[in-house]
Design brief:
This protein is of the alpha+beta class and 161 residues long. The chain is 36% helix and 10% strand. It is built from five helices and three strands. It has a three-stranded antiparallel beta sheet with strand order 1-3-2, covered by helices on one side. The radius of gyration is 21 Å and the shape is elongated.
Length: 161
């Protein structure tokens, strides 16, 4: 069984749990880690609430569009604002929370990674970072590599996020 930050990875639904809930459950759906990460990010930013992955899957189902029967509800922040989703559990490791926030930012398109080849001369990388700054973006990480680049020896590959 693969481990995930949501904490809900199980190989199959337990027999007792399934038998107990069968008459009460209309349907089962799955949500991705990406949707859950985005849900955790939205809760932190909009509600100032920290919730572990398992507690955010209800919101993940809503924002990922997995419940089309709820579409059309009055909109405030998200399309389903009149729907109640139970949020539970704040037991998320702080190091995991940082990674989940980054994943949520990436899913939301607010954290991107680009790889470019620039001239390997004094000021080549500086010109790249200046252009990024002129676009109003910040650099989180930057990595450059010369030895394993397939172009000429006067170029450098730069990965920026």
């Amino acid at each position: 069984m693969e481990h995930n930050f949501i904490g809900l990875a199980v190989p199959k639904v337990g027999g007792n749990a399934l038998a107990t809930s069968q008459g009460l459950v209309d349907s089962l759906i799955t949500v991705s880690e990406e949707s859950t990460a985005l849900s955790i990010l939205r809760l932190i930013e909009m509600e100032k609430a920290v919730v572990e992955g398992g507690g955010a899957v209800g919101l993940a189902a809503l924002i990922s569009g997995k419940l089309p029967e709820l579409k059309g509800k009055k909109r405030i922040y998200i399309e389903y604002s009149r729907v109640v989703s139970i949020l539970s559990g704040g037991n998320i490791d702080t190091t995991v929370l940082g990674r989940v926030i980054e994943r949520g930012l990436a899913v939301d398109g607010r954290l991107v990674r680009v790889e470019v080849v620039v001239s390997d001369r004094p000021g080549g990388i500086a010109e790249l970072t200046t252009r990024i700054a002129q676009m109003g973006a910040s650099i989180k990480d930057i990595f450059h590599e010369r030895a394993w680049i397939a172009t000429d020896v006067f170029s450098v590959r730069v990965r920026v996020s």
